[in-house]
Amino acid sequence: MMHGLFLYQRVYKGLDIITNKVTEEEQRACVHHVLDVVSPLRRFTVVDFRNKALPILEDILDRQRLPIIVGGTNYYIESLLWKVLISPPEDQEETSLLFDREDAADEMMTDADLHSQLAAVDPAMAARLHPNDRRKVARSLQVFQQTGVPHSILLQEQSTQEGGGPLGGPLRYTNTCILYLSCQQQVLDERLDKRVDTMLEQGLLDELAHFHTEYNKEIVDANRQDYTRGIFQSIGFKEFHKYLLLEEERRSSDEGQRLLQEGVAALKTVTRRYARRQLKWIRNRFLKRPGGNVPQVFQVDSTNYPGRWEEDVLQPALSIVQAYVQGRDPPVPPVPYEEPRQVDRHTAYTCEVCGGRVITGQLSWEAHLASRTHQRKARKQRLREAMKQHQLEKAQQSSEASASSGEDDFAQSFSAMLEDKKD
Fold first, then answer.
1. What InterPro entries does UniProt report for this protein, alphabetically (predicted)?
2. What integer pLDDT is reported at residue 228 of this predicted model?
């Protein structure tokens, strides 16, 4: 019997369309866990997920069953495969209401204030985190408040464990493989756009409108909306924010339809962008993961779905998993592991071209320099500097011409004076 362990957004009750939840028919095909277990207004962090999922994994393994971790939120997959998280003390409860009194107090603080607080108790961690990365800064402060130990020291201790590395502790399960479904980019983009259209046909707007009325309107009215927490991080909420703020009778107006179309276009854009980020995560965190202890990654091509699903995806995946279970070499080779490039991940760089923007880490800095936004601003700056230099040169030439003209006038005047004296 196979057991599916579904990740992150699917843990929330309801909201089946926006979280692309498995159907009842699919759930009957195998046992699903960590599905529909959390109220949408509960704060459910990656630590909460790990603490809920690990006992289930251990129980499945103890019963000689095969657990399959499924999902697209790769950080949550990492939390199960590697020992990479810092746990709060056992007598402290991690899960709390998504918006509580402590949140209200924290929201009064600026990003700079929070970062200054972190610098006071954990200067090493503050130097690693961008001042505007409020979520990570707050998390490091939380770790210090819960444990009394700076987050940077705990991470250092974790990484120095046997099998650990720069990204955290050792691999938790040694006999693990990762199946990665690839797809040609153009085909994937078209598929994702169609998925958004299908979600709309299934009633996405009604689901969002109901959720907004039941859970979100009061928060918005209190000016406490935060799309960086809990279920609100899901793609689909903030894209339709302006549309949902309209009174129901105004949503069919010209303005409402315009906001609706803008939301649909934004949803398609961020969905494609998220898919690309997932690919980068697989390359950087699985195929280039520093420190060793990386499970083998196998790629199966889903480009020709659904026509060749059996031949290109299902059968190769089953043969790989069966080989692992039976202790044999898989029939297909894994994706080659790439030796990670040794880079500085924590130095802060300041881009004067982009108005003093701070970029943390060498790779992020290099990516920023190569970005279209930076390149465009750099070209404009070079153009301004060239025009300024041109104006300076013209002014200098004009000044020299004026000086030369003045000398000629003086010489002529002096000659005239001499002639007058002779007369």
1. Dimethylallyltransferase, IPT, P-loop_NTPase
2. 63
